TrEMBL record:
Any one Gene Ontology molecular-function term assigned to this protein's record: aldehyde dehydrogenase (NAD+) activity
Protein name: aldehyde dehydrogenase (NAD(+))
Domain of life: Eukaryota
Reaction(s) this enzyme catalyzes, per UniProt: an aldehyde + NAD(+) + H2O = a carboxylate + NADH + 2 H(+)
EC number: 1.2.1.3
Family: Belongs to the aldehyde dehydrogenase family.
Species lineage: Eukaryota, Viridiplantae, Streptophyta, Embryophyta, Tracheophyta
Amino acid sequence: MRSLCVEPFQNLSVVDTGARRAFTHCSPWKTNHKHEAVLSFPLSSPNRKSLSICLSSSANLPVMMEEKKQTFDASEAAFLVKELNENFRAGKTKSYEWRVSQLKGIEKMVVEREKDICEALYKDLSKPEYEAFVSEISMVRSSCEEALKELKQWMKPEKAKTSMATYPSSAEIVSEPLGAVLVISTWNYPFSLSVKPVVGAITAGNAVVLKPSEIAPATSALLSKLFEEYLDRSAVRVVEGGVLETTALLDQKWDKIFYTGLVNRMSISPILCLKCLHFSYSFILVFRNTMYLDGKKRSSTSVITTDEISACVFGTKNFILYHLFSTNLCIAYLSPQLVIQISMVRSSCEEALKELKQWMKPEKAKTSMATYPSSAEIVSEPLGAVLVISTWNYPFSLSVKPVVGAITAGNAVVLKPSEIAPATSALLSKLFEEYLDRSAVRVVEGGVLETTALLDQKWDKIFYTGSPRVGRIVMTAAAKHLTPVVLELGGKCPAVIDSDVDLQVTVRRIIAGKWQLNNGQACISVDYIITTKEFAPKLIDALRKGIEEFFGTDPMESKDISCIVSSNHFSRLESLMDDYKVFYKIVVGGQRNQKKLKIAPTIFLDVPGDSQLMQEEIFGPLLPIITVENVKDSIDLINSKPKPLTAYLFTNNEKLKNNFVQSVSSGGMVINDTVLHVTVSSLPFGGVGESGMGSYHGKFSFDAFSHKKAVLYRSFSGDTSVRYPPYTPEKQKLVRAVMNGGIFDIILAFMGWSRD
């Protein structure tokens, strides 16, 4: 305790004004056993301290001031996450050099502090030194070694095939860090199961917080000390504690959560899942029995129904188009919607039928000296019974494509189409009954009550397409059963337009990516444009001419523009237009007809950032244009908002292209065009952060509905006493040599020597 003398309370005026304000706003006085007044209040700094002031009833006695350490609470957690996010956004963790430095730091930590690690593991679990090395220390070290060896390769963009639909084009899959991630580890392997996920998070370029298990306090305290000493504190932290601290951490918004524990430890697991309302990824590692439908594994015969889906699509095109056009969205008949709604489903079936045998083959995996002689493979197995909840804006393709993926992976599936597109919902129910195997593929029609009844059940996976608001409900329901989810949501998709572009081509592609997509009612449609103040007038004039060219002088009479889906959605868009902050900012369009549920293409210029138009996903024909001094400033503007489903950039500047790809985090990205990435099945389609989690299309659909089962094969030969007790010094030398992987080390160990 630190004590200091101050004036008696009646002379508090001599104390600084900051302290006097603190006294004034504190909680009421309490009396201790000495009949002295005691007042405690927290400090605003992140040092997790409080001041306790003890005032004697006697004016002659000094005031005692004591520092008391408090529990890590929600405010501390919020401060921590904010600090990590700021450092992540500054780009500190993204570089190859930073990742390597941290991996080498962990490797150095493991080598230099091996004795301390073994002692902590012995205190917590009475774990023998031999076992501590084999099951904990060597595992972490080998993870670091592999990451350091392969990191450059892992960071390289992966080339993807394109199709005639996007010619001429090229495509790639870029791995980008998520942001600030949380790792909650367990007690049974408290070192390796804490550090290995951290290695993964660092390797991917994230800032990371580790919450070790309080049931292994010695290892937890050691990890906190070692991370402070060996790693970059601005991006890698340890938070110790129990349920209160874990709850405080889970109350924050994370970009991913990695949890290791048992499924029956319900004191933690539900907290983890239910707190994923911020769309944090919950990667739950649990002991799980393989589950099959009807007590048996589904064979490849269950995917034969894909042929029937193809028949459904190929044989009823006109009937489907009639329903889409006449009843739901007034979709322009035989318009590009034909390509989106019909051809994309057809191409999904064709690709699945062509590639299915290859997708189902086990994938060979490398083994190490530690398992010699052995072989390993990764087997894709179906999950079980899955639920697909689809949306209304593309009510056919966004219903059938996930079902194709679920069937291709060998699952039983229930589809719940959107009640907002009732004609398509009824048609899907009829067609599935007619063309597919009813014992494994069903459609359930209805609204909120029916969806709620379905979500109350235990599914092996839930695939949801729709709004973030309902996505939260779906994820909360899934958390009750620890059901994994794929959420295909939305967000405000920006389009950045540089001044060096081909203006005519750019405008045509912007119009195609906005008003030709259900009149803006698409999750990937352009939500707002960012351009320079100087270039904005030229762009607006070109957009005005382009709209007139495509939709005529009166767009309200055009048959090439879809109507708004419902009166509720129309009213919502009207309220966005009539907001006093933006209605006078309209520079193009603004016409509307409530009876016909039509709104003309409408462009706004420089609406306030705090207006509803810029705060929520528009999902309609309204298009704000935001101006900046320099096009480079657009990157900071985009990154200040939740991560979008797609980001678009139009430029001929190679440096800007590279900076945009590396700096802007989004589910997908298109350079010099809009929306066409959804037609490339070799690219994953999905969101990140609040725009969704998980991805599908092509092989990624198969993977989304499959479990990747790790299988190691060994014979009865090659057994050795080295792995079994009693653990002698000779055995330990040999095990270290094998784990280190060096032939020379192994020879030395057999001879009774070592490098040491």
